[in-house]
Recover the amino acids of this structure.
């Protein structure tokens, strides 16, 4: 599907630009990357795809286990960092700019398909899942990490949605944190669906510092701040709500961010 035929082309263009600023916070996702690679059971020699790979933390973790890895991301700016990270350890990872809803790979190309907090921003979960499963070999494994809607990141992204509604028909990213949704989207194409909760932490001097950092690194926050730039009262209200949410998860200069991991095997 060409950009001109995609009803969500404008949404994806904004994501491409906004997520290009994510790199400063990517190092804090590296322990979660190791957890996902371990959960997926990656072994040497397997063909692995990291969808919405960002700066390559999952892709590189899998490659260092001996896997043959490809990474794909919507934001070309992040792929610059991904290639730089791979070059440091001479990892031969093929990084490609692309869209999870239209993966540029042949059917049954990979033993494992992974995604960490990335594919869930696709507007159509059914299409994203269908593409991830299409490129997966029969018997191959799909595994991904997402944010539950009742915890800090899910709540924050839902807050963003109240100030900046998604286009009609687009799914909220927090819907990927509901196991019932995941089971429905995976459907009969997989077997052995399993879930696991884990936690990562983000250093922050205060909830307000955390919110300010999100405004400079997370595409949905960046877009809200841009949109409310000429509405100071609404912007102040948004920031106050961010602080109120984050305070519940903040202690000792850290914000606790629990997340959900899913894995299954393609039939």
């Amino acid at each position: 599907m060409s950009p001109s035929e995609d009803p969500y082309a404008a949404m994806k263009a904004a994501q491409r630009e906004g997520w290009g600023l994510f790199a400063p916070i990517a190092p804090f996702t590296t322990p979660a990357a190791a957890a996902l690679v371990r959960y997926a059971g990656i072994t040497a020699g397997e063909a692995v795809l990291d969808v919405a790979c960002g700066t390559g933390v999952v892709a590189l973790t899998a490659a260092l286990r001996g896997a043959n890895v490809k990474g794909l991301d919507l934001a070309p700016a992040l792929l610059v960092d991904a290639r730089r990270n791979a070059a440091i350890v001479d990892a031969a990872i093929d990084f490609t700019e692309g869209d999870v809803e239209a993966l540029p790979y042949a059917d049954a190309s990979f033993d494992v398909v992974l995604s960490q907090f990335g594919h869930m921003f696709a507007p159509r979960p059914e299409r994203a899942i269908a593409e991830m499963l299409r490129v997966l070999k029969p018997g191959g494994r799909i595994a991904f990490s997402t944010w539950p809607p009742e915890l800090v990141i899910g709540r924050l992204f839902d807050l963003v949605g109240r100030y900046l509604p998604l286009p009609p028909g687009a799914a909220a990213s927090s819907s990927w944190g509901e196991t019932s949704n995941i089971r429905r989207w995976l459907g009969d194409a997989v077997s052995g669906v399993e879930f696991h909760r884990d936690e990562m932490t983000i250093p922050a001097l205060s909830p307000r510092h955390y919110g300010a950092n999100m405004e400079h690194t997370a595409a949905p926050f960046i877009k809200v701040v841009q949109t409310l730039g000429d509405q100071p009262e609404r912007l102040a209200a948004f920031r106050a709500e961010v602080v109120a949410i984050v305070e519940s998860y903040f202690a000792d200069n850290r914000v606790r961010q629990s997340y959900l991991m899913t894995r299954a095997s393609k039939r």
